[in-house]
Structures are given as C-alpha cells and as structure tokens.
C-alpha cells in the first residue's frame, strides 16, 4: 500500500513539474516571441533593401575596407604624386617579375622556293579590353613586340648557335594596362612574311618564273608585263594567334616547345582541295594531326625567365607575367592580414592565424540571460562569435555587439555583466518602449511619396539643416553598458527644437521644412479663389459698374488680410484707403466708397469716427495729387 502511495505522489510531483515547465515556457514565449519575430522580419527586409550600411556606423569601423584618415590632408594635386609613387615602388609580397622568351627554330613550308633561306616573323601583342557600352565592340590595343629572321625548312643537323639570333624577349611592361583600360585578355599574334613560287611549266628551273631562251614579253603602258607577277603578289603573309591570358586571368602559354599551324592572311578565295593518302588495312587517320602535314608551321620554344628588378623593372610595371599576378588571382590565395579589422581580407584555409601571430586569437564566450516574469532567468549556450542573435550581423567585438544591441533593438534592455569565462548579457523587456519617433521631425517628410519610386533618381526636397556643435565622442568602453540606458544619454542625437510635425490647414498635408517660415493661413487666398470672387460679382445685374468695381476691391482686400471678425472692420477700412486710395480717386469711385461706409455704419459694424477718418484720408490724398 505504501509503494502505491509513493508512486502516486511521484506522479503528482512529476505532473506539477511539467506544468511549471510548460508555464515557464509560455511566459517566456509571451515575453520574447513577438519582439523576436519583429526583429527577424526587419532583418529579412534589411537584407533585401537595406536602409543604411553597417560599415558607416561609428562603432562598426572594422567593417570598412577603406579608411578616411587621409581626407584631412587630401589635395587634388596629390593624385598624380600617389600614382607616380605606386609606379616607382617595388612590388612586395609577390613572385619575381618574369619575362617571356621566344626562340624560333624554323619555318616549315614546302611551297617556299629553295633559294629562300629566311623569312620575317613579327610578334604582336593584342590587348582585348572591356567595352564600356553594350552596342560597341571591345577595343583592341596592338603592341608590336619586334621582328626576327627565321630559317626556312631547317634540317636536323642545323647549327643551334644560329638560333640565338631568332630569339625574342618580351618584357613584363608589355602586359601593363594602357590609358586606364581594363584588359580582358592578352593574345599573341605571330605573322610570317615569305616569298612563294607559283605553278611553273615543266622545263623551268626552280625559282625561275619564265624560260630564259624566250624573248621578253612586251610591256604595257602601266609598266607591268603580261606574264610576270607583281612584287606584291610574291609576298604571302601567314599568321595565327595564341591566347596568353584568358578572361579568367589564367596563363595559357606554359613553358615548352610549340608547333604553330599558320593560315594565309588576306586570302578571299576558298581554300583549294588538297590530295591526301587513303589509309588501308583498317588504318585510321588522326584528323587533328593531318593539318600539320598540309599547312605551313612555325616551331618555337617558349620559356619564362626571372629578371632582377634593377634590370627589367621600370616605373609603371606593376602587372606581373607568367604565374605571378594572373595565376595568383585565380588559383593561389596569399593570406593578407588587415591591420584595421583583424581578419583575413582574402579567403584562406588558415583564416584564424595572422602573419605575425603564432597562436589562434582567444575568443570571448558570450552568454545571453533572459529575464522575465519577476526575474525568472533562462540562459542560452555560450557563443564564441560576436553575431547578433536577432539580425545575424557580425559585430567582431564585444563593444560593437553591445552598442548594436542597444541602438538597433530598443524593445529590449541589455545589461553587460562581466564574467570570468567571458561575458554575460542580461536581456529584459523594455517597458518604456512605445514605438514613438525620437529623431528629427524634418526627416519624416523628406521621403514622403518616394517609397516605391524605383524607376530612377528622385530630386530631394531642398532644405537647410542646422549644424549643431557636438561634444567630443567618448572613448569606447564597456563600462557604459554596466547600467541600463537612460533618456538623457550622452551620445543621444541632438535635435534642434521640438520633435513635432505640422500640417497644412486646408490640405492636411505635412508641412515641408522650407515652408515653416511662412504662415499656412495664406493658403486661403489662392489665385483661383480671387478669380471666382470676381466672376460672382460680375454676375450681378441690379448694380452699376462702379459698385461692382468697388466690391471687387473690398472683397479681395478682406480676403487678403484675413479679416473674419466685426472688430477688425475699422482697421480694414483704414488699410483699404491706404492701399487703394489712389485707385479710387483715379477711377472716380469716392462716392461709391462713401455709400459703402454708410452701409457698414447702418449695420453697426463701424462708428461715425471711422467714416469721418476714411473721408478725411481721401481728401488728403486728393490734395497730394493736386485735385480739389
């Protein structure tokens, strides 16, 4: 009996514990679920369309790739000096400069006459640049690398000592950019100029174009013979291209021996059919290699040689050749430690180590402790990264993390608690947060109506901002996070004036900053209303033209000055005579004005003194104008 009772008590205790855990979980979710969902949504929206850049914040300087320390001493004249200094300084942290060496061993073509021993080979480097417009073609910059004489159809026992005269060295300066153009690829163009023999009848020696026993043909008036060919027809140019660096900046010409197939340049006629040997007995011809037997070829060897910086490096040679800059940019990542941020600026496997650091940097463990329901606590696992748990932004340091949490997540209160193993951050609900705007009210109206303007640039509203003197920014310290944030924070944005936003009386639109100095009551006197009043008076038929003209002046005068009370009529009469007295005298409307004043007196709007004063003002104006 006792065992059953104990089991029953244990079940009751377990049920109570489960209920308490479930109640604790519900209270935790009730406190932190809604703000967390809001900040997760804002994080997603910020990734798609950011309102600002994190690197522009004063406490996120580590995210900046370029510092602004040189802005104070910057001058326009210093741009040229900086460019010249970069061209003169040696390139550090990179392999030695290398030059390309081409050694031509011979030109092979069966159609070349036997008395032709050498041909001229010219090397041209073509730089294919990026085009700046879609409808334009890619600009090509051609640079001649030189010309050499190459032996024609050398035999196997050819003297190798003569090959030195057929070599060509390409300096590293040839692979530099020209006039600021962004080079897309480098192409080496080799052209061979030689003399060819034409089809000759039998009985003529090689190299002779005509039989010496036959008489010379008659010459034409233009100086050309009917049988002999022009000198330009004897010069045949062959050429071919080799890609040195492709679009991915990879070097395609490695060291080795090359046999380049050449094609005739400038030939518009279709290629002639050439006879080939048919293979029998199940033999198969290799198509790609058959072209070497039919077309002229150029044999050469290519090598990359290191040169000293004093002999081959000149001012302006910053682009490396052959397995240096272009190959390093594609395949090899050299770890470069950034002095400002403390992170590797280039992806690397050993990303935890810096150049001058032998041991990994010690990471700070951060523990978040959530407070809710009368100081109930719930801790999270220790995290070694400095990423915000709500918006996943890498803050890099503890100070930047705490500053980001307080400024970007105002729905929570964050309190920093030092710990022996790292840092502890107490998170609680900010009961004083009401979602009200605490910034400059002029910023509320700066982008009204432009929220969905994605078609192009929108002109800003012209406004003058008052520059307010700010005190010196305090040195970053974790001590400012040991207490809860107060309203009169030292670094709170200083706003000139109040934080109210005014609206127009008639249209209920927000008042623009440039309209603050003007009274919105002037909106009751628009041009269309004046024209409407004038038209309504003209529609009367039982009054004369003088009365119509006077009532137009009177109504527009009342509308302009905004007189709306009976007590303002005496002052309106005085100002009316001062502004329109000359016009009344010129148009002979003084009697009409006197009748209008008597009507106002009959309706008890003015006193007799006002009538006498208005008449006296008109008489004084007549004397000034010389009228009696």
UniProtKB/TrEMBL annotation:
- Protein family membership: Belongs to the VEFS (VRN2-EMF2-FIS2-SU(Z)12) family.
Q: Name one GO molecular function term.
A: zinc ion binding
State the name under which the record lists this protein.
Polycomb protein VEFS-Box domain-containing protein
Q: Which residues form the Polycomb protein VEFS-Box domain?
A: 492-609
Organism encoding this protein? Sinanodonta woodiana (Chinese pond mussel)
Listed Basic and acidic residues bias regions: 1-13
State the UniProt keywords alphabetically. Chromatin regulator, Metal-binding, Transcription, Transcription regulation, Zinc, Zinc-finger
Q: Which GO terms describe its biological process?
A: chromatin organization
């Amino acid at each position: 009996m006792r065992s059953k009772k104990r089991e029953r008590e244990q079940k009751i205790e377990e049920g109570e514990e489960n209920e308490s855990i479930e109640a604790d979980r519900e209270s935790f979710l009730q406190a932190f679920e809604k703000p967390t969902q809001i900040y997760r949504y804002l994080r997603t929206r910020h990734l798609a369309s950011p309102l600002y850049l994190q690197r522009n914040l004063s406490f996120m300087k580590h995210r900046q790739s370029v510092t602004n320390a040189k802005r104070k001493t910057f001058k326009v004249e210093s741009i040229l000096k900086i460019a010249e200094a970069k061209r003169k300084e040696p390139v550090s942290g990179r392999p030695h400069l290398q030059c390309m060496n081409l050694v031509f061993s011979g030109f092979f073509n069966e159609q070349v006459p036997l008395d032709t021993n050498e041909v001229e080979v010219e090397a041209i480097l073509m730089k294919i640049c990026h085009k700046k417009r879609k409808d334009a073609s890619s600009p090509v910059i051609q640079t001649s690398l030189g010309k050499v004489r190459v032996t024609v159809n050398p035999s196997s026992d050819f003297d190798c000592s003569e090959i030195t005269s057929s070599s060509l060295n390409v300096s590293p300066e040839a692979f530099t950019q020209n006039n600021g153009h962004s080079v897309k690829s480098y192409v080496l163009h080799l052209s061979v100029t030689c003399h060819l023999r034409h089809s000759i009848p039998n009985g003529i020696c090689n190299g002779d174009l005509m039989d010496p026993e036959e008489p010379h043909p008659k010459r034409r008036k233009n100086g050309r013979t009917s049988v002999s060919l022009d000198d330009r027809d004897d010069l045949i140019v062959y050429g071919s291209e080799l890609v040195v660096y492709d679009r991915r900046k990879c070097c395609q010409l490695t060291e080795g021996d090359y046999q380049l197939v050449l094609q005739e340049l400038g030939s518009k006629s279709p290629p002639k059919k050439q006879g080939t040997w048919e293979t029998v007995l199940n033999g198969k011809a290799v198509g790609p290699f058959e072209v070497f037997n039919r077309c002229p070829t150029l044999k050469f060897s290519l090598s990359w040689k290191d040169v000293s910086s004093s002999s081959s490096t000149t001012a302006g040679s910053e682009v490396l050749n052959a397995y240096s800059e272009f190959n390093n940019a594609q395949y090899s990542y050299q770890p470069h430690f950034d002095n400002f941020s403390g992170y590797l600026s280039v992806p690397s496997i050993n990303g935890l180590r810096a150049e001058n650091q032998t041991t990994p940097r010690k990471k700070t463990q951060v523990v978040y402790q959530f407070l809710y329901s009368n100081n109930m606590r719930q801790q999270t696992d220790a995290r070694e990264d400095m990423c915000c748990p709500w918006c996943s932004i890498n803050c890099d340091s503890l100070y930047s993390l705490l500053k980001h949490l307080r400024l970007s997540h105002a729905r929570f209160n964050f309190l920093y608690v030092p710990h022996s193993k790292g840092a502890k951050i107490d998170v609680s609900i900010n009961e004083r947060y009401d979602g009200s705007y605490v910034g400059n009210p002029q910023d509320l109206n700066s982008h009204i109506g432009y929220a969905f303007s994605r078609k192009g640039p929108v002109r800003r509203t012209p406004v003058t901002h008052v520059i307010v003197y700010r005190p010196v920014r305090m040195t970053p310290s974790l001590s400012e996070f040991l207490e809860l944030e107060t309203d009169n924070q030292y670094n709170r944005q200083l706003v000139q004036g109040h934080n109210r936003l005014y609206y127009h009386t008639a249209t209920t639109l927000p008042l623009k900053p440039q309209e603050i100095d003007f009274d919105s009551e002037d909106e009751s006197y628009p041009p269309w209303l004046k024209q409407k009043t004038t038209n309504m008076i003209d529609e009367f038929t039982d009054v004369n033209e003088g009365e119509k003209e006077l009532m137009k002046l009177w109504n527009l005068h009342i509308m302009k000055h905004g007189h709306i009370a009976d007590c303002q009529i005496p002052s309106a009469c005085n100002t009316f005579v001062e502004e329109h007295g000359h016009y009344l005298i010129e148009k002979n409307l003084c009697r009409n004005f006197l009748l209008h004043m008597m009507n106002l007196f009959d309706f008890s709007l003015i006193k007799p003194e006002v009538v006498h004063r208005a008449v006296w003002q008109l008489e004084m104006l007549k004397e000034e104008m010389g009228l009696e």
